[in-house]
Write a structure and sequence with these properties.
Elements (H helix, E strand, L loop, with lengths): L2 H26 L11 E4 L2 E4 L17 E5 H7 L4 H5 L5 E4 L16 E4 L5 E5 L2 E2 L31 E8 L13 E7 L7 E9 L3 E12 L5 E12 L3 E3 L6 E3 L5 E13 L5 E14 L12 H12 L14 H6 L3 E18 L2 E17 L2 H4 L15 H8 L12 E18 L2 E19 L6 E20 L4 E12 L3 E3 L5 E3 L5 E13 L4 E12 L3 H4 L15 E13 L4 E23 L4 E23 L4 E15 L18 H7 L4 E11 L2 E11 L11 E11 L4 E8 L25 E9 L1
Parallel strand pairs: 6-9
Antiparallel strand pairs: 1-2, 3-8, 4-5, 6-7, 8-9, 10-11, 10-35, 11-12, 12-15, 13-14, 15-16, 16-17, 17-18, 18-19, 19-20, 20-21, 21-22, 21-23, 22-25, 23-24, 25-26, 26-27, 27-28, 28-29, 29-30, 30-31, 31-32, 32-33, 33-34, 34-35
Length: 773
């Protein structure tokens, strides 16, 4: 079928669903007298509907499922400094990084990676708009070796700009895209109020860490219909410290300093209750240094340094050279870093509102610049020359003659990247009887370009990738009766062929890379009574592979089999119950069945009569389970408990034979890597106390089932403490302590580099003051 026919077929299917859903209103008209569309309950600072879901400005998108909302009140009381800090208390949300701020873009183990219930196919939005770039390689050039989230959660907007954070698990967020398998994180920004108001928030503490936040908001015009909100932020620190579980003692994590700044402006014009204009500008910039890995201090000596080199040049494999990661200390000493500069503009005009749904047109543009410098390849000399041991008698002379200029001042050695995308988004929403209908269409033009130095040369190369996308959806939330909502939806995705421009300036399309696909989903919620509800969801999954996946050389593939787009089905089911007016529990289960997923695996190569690591298409089955409980003891004490467990199973397809050896001896199979490279179980406990002007909260994260082959311990308990005291209505003082007990732990692991290669930060104490005016 031609591309044009596929598009017409998809459009016809969407219109058919729209027509069927509209006509369904007649079938349910008899229930209209019994159903109230705006049935809500107010509970503490949250507004909830009859299913127990917290209501926000974006609630009409949601279609049931496990949704957690972090409010502005919580952000204020706990003084989070970034988004990841705010959502790490939510069961099923996992962060994996190398223990420092920025991570190293493009490599899975060194990348900052996030997943929801074990799936990194997570979509991140700001005010309901996706912020990723369809051709970006900054979070991995291939689909098999990096996070699939495609956006850095902490480099989107500063925490002072955020009003709420929605964390939506599973396919209950189907309208956000065909690839939101794990779920969605939707950041809702703050809107100015009718009165002028400002705040200054200052924090200082461990490792010369300083945080400065300034906000100002208000209204203009005789009728105060113009609203504005402005925020500016600076977050910076010197090298952090950590407790070393391998050799013992507290260590400085060299080259982990960072400096990040942001400015955000949002202007709203309310014409009437149904029409408004929103203009927002977001600027982010930062420099995040990185050491890649922490050294193994058991081998940090002249003798250990020589042994490391001897094994490396002697052909000993990395995993059998436990001192190998000490090479990366040279990267830290030479000031390797990542830098970014982002400018985003978003203009939306809402021309109608009905039943909490918005009809609008939006235009946007994102320009994300990245710079980076990584000296690591230069340390391993092909001629066998050894770099002297750092701190030894020959080190200073060597360093001064090679890297005294500290890397970032020599721009001829810096790699430059630019991700740019712009587009227009249209949405129309209409209530027809018991049907809440939403139709959306987005056109996006994306480009990613690079300008990189040629190793051991003054020359540079440039290249770029372009792709256009059309994304559409039709969703109908059918209020069957006062207890039951049924939400079918259809999503349409068209992507043009990848257009590559190589270093020689030659432009070509990647063959057979254009996409046209329709993916349906259906979700439902049912309230048994005022205290009990359940939900179920199914969604067809489609996630396009990246340009480099389609152009990989045959030697990286199994029998030359080209990598195909990821496809599958995602299911979610859950149950909520209020045991009393003080106690509630919830159970959530996810099951993802990918008929085609892209990964790396050791497969048997007949021509070589051996197992080799290859990029492959395989089958994936993922299961996850969440259990949460909330209890209010009295007017002062509250406790939230959570438990999550997840497991992946991969199997071969396309005539492959996987390496049957699933132990840790001589292989790194995917089943082993995924399930063993993370804790099996994650428990959370969140205890808070509030009494007039005083607020205190203690968060415990307990990880168990960590494999001792790659982790330094089988379990870790980490505590975070927040104390908040309102001196008066304008002045608040506070104290936060992350990793209260200075626990030695990791949340990322590597069989190659050994336990403790990615230690998390030790105890960090911050004191602060917030003044409102």
């Amino acid at each position: 079928m031609s591309n044009m026919k596929r598009r017409y077929t998809a459009a016809a299917a969407m219109m058919m669903v729209l027509g069927l859903c509209a006509s369904a209103s007649a079938a349910f008209d008899e229930n209209l007298n019994d159903y109230t569309l705006d049935t809500i309950v107010v509970e503490a600072d949250a507004v909830k509907n009859k299913f127990g879901d917290t209501i926000t400005e974006q609630s009409y998108y949601r279609t049931g499922g496990d949704v957690k909302v972090i409010t502005r009140e919580e952000i204020e009381k706990r003084h989070y400094t970034d988004v990841s800090e705010a959502i790490k208390r939510i069961p099923g949300v996992t962060f994996q990084n190398s223990g420092y701020r920025g991570g190293e873009y493009g490599y899975s183990f060194f990348n900052n990676s996030m997943s929801i219930n074990g799936d990194s196919r997570v979509v991140i939005l700001v005010d309901g708009r996706r912020v990723d770039n369809s051709v970006s390689t900054k979070f991995g050039s291939g689909s098999a070796n990096a996070t699939k989230t495609m956006a850095d959660l902490n480099a989107i907007v500063n925490i002072e700009t955020i009003d709420k954070i929605e964390v939506i698990k599973g396919p209950g967020a189907s309208v956000y895209g065909t690839d939101a398998t794990g779920g969605v994180i939707n950041i809702i920004t703050r809107k100015g109020g009718t009165e002028n108001h400002g705040s200054i928030d200052l924090q200082t503490g461990s490792w010369h860490k300083h945080v400065y936040n300034l906000t100002y908001s208000g209204a203009a015009g005789e009728d105060k219909s113009w609203r504005y909100f402005i925020s500016a932020s600076r977050n910076m620190a010197q090298d952090s410290k950590y407790k070393d579980a391998v050799s013992g003692g507290n260590r400085t994590y060299l080259n982990t300093r960072y400096k990040e700044e942001s400015t955000n402006i949002r202007v709203d014009k309310d014409f009437n209750e149904k029409q408004n204009l929103k203009i927002s500008y977001n600027h982010q910039n930062g420099v995040d240094h990185y050491p890649i890995l922490a050294p193994n201090y058991d081998y940090w000596s002249e003798a250990g340094w020589k042994d490391m080199y001897d094994k490396y040049y002697g052909g000993v494999t990395t995993k059998d050279n436990p001192a190998y990661r000490n090479f990366f200390m040279l990267d830290a000493l030479s000031n390797s870093y990542n830098a970014y500069r982002k400018n985003d503009i978003d203009i939306s005009y809402t021309f109608d509102k009905e039943n909490g749904m918005e009809s609008f047109i939006r235009v946007y543009q994102q320009k994300h610049h990245y710079d980076g410098l990584d000296h690591y390849p230069q340390w391993i000399q092909p001629d066998g020359n050894r770099v002297p041991f750092p701190g030894g008698p020959d080190w200073e002379k060597f360093f001064n003659s090679n890297f005294k200029w500290q890397s970032d001042k020599d721009f001829t050695k810096v790699s430059h990247y630019l991700d740019e995308n712009k587009g227009v988004q249209f949405q129309y929403a209409k209530a027809v009887g018991v049907n809440d209908l939403i139709f959306g269409l987005t056109y996006d033009k994306s480009e990613s370009s690079s300008n990189e130095p040629v190793r051991n040369s003054d020359a540079r190369t440039t290249s770029s990738v372009k792709r256009d996308s059309i994304m559409g959806f039709v969703q109908d939330k059918i209020h069957v009766n006062d207890k039951w909502d049924l939400t079918p939806s259809v999503r349409y995705l068209h992507m043009s062929s990848y257009e590559n421009t190589n270093e020689n300036g030659k432009t070509s399309e990647v063959a057979d890379s254009d996409i046209s696909t329709v993916t349906p989903s259906i979700n439902t919620q049912y309230a048994f009574d005022d205290t009990t509800s359940a939900y179920f969801g199914w969604s067809k999954v489609y996630r396009p592979v990246k340009a480099s996946d389609l152009t990989k050389a045959d030697k990286y593939l199994f029998n030359g089999q080209r990598l195909e787009d990821e496809k599958g089905n995602a299911f979610t089911i859950g149950f909520k119950k209020d045991l009393s007016d003080k106690t509630s529990v919830a159970v959530h289960y996810d099951y993802t069945d990918m008929s085609n997923a892209v990964t790396q695996y050791r497969v048997f190569i007949a021509s070589e009569n051996d197992y080799k690591q290859k990029f492959i298409n395989a089958k994936e089955k993922k299961k996850s389970f969440n259990l949460t409980a909330d209890h209010t003891f009295d007017d002062h004490w509250n406790l939230s408990l959570g438990y999550s467990h997840l497991k992946d199973e991969w199997s071969a397809k396309n005539g492959m034979t996987f390496d049957p050896d699933l132990n840790w001896s001589g292989t790194t199979n995917v089943n082993t890597m995924i399930n063993k490279y993370r804790p099996t179980n994650h428990y959370t406990a969140n205890l808070s106390y509030e009494n007039d002007s005083f607020y205190a909260a203690l968060l415990a994260n307990y990880f168990t089932g960590c494999d001792r082959t790659v982790f330094t311990d089988s379990r870790f308990m980490v505590f975070d403490l927040s104390l908040n005291y309102a001196v008066n209505k304008d002045l608040t003082t506070y104290l936060t302590v992350n990793n209260l007990t200075n626990t030695a732990y990791e949340n990322a692991a590597s069989y190659v580099y050994g336990p403790g290669a990615a230690p998390q930060a030790g105890r960090c104490i911050m004191v602060g003051m917030k003044y409102s005016f």
